[in-house]
Amino acid sequence: MVDPTSSLGDDVDEENAPECATCGEKIVQSPTHRVVTWVEDGTVQHRHFCSDDCRESYDAS
User: Fold this and answer.
1) Total structural domains in the chain?
2) Could you tell me one molecular function GO term of this UniProt entry (predicted)?
3) pTM for the full model?
4) C-alpha–C-alpha distance, residues 52 and 34, integer Å
């Protein structure tokens, strides 16, 4: 399995790429890719964002 959170983005094509939680854009080898991770009820959760602007927009809603 390809790790879509790879810091290098190696071997991640559009089919396997994560989607931005705000705008839905596929994130492929993007230097502005951000991942927010937290633990909820003993389970690790995460959201991907294509940019800081999308992350801020998500937090504001």
Assistant:
1) 1
2) zinc ion binding
3) 0.75
4) 7
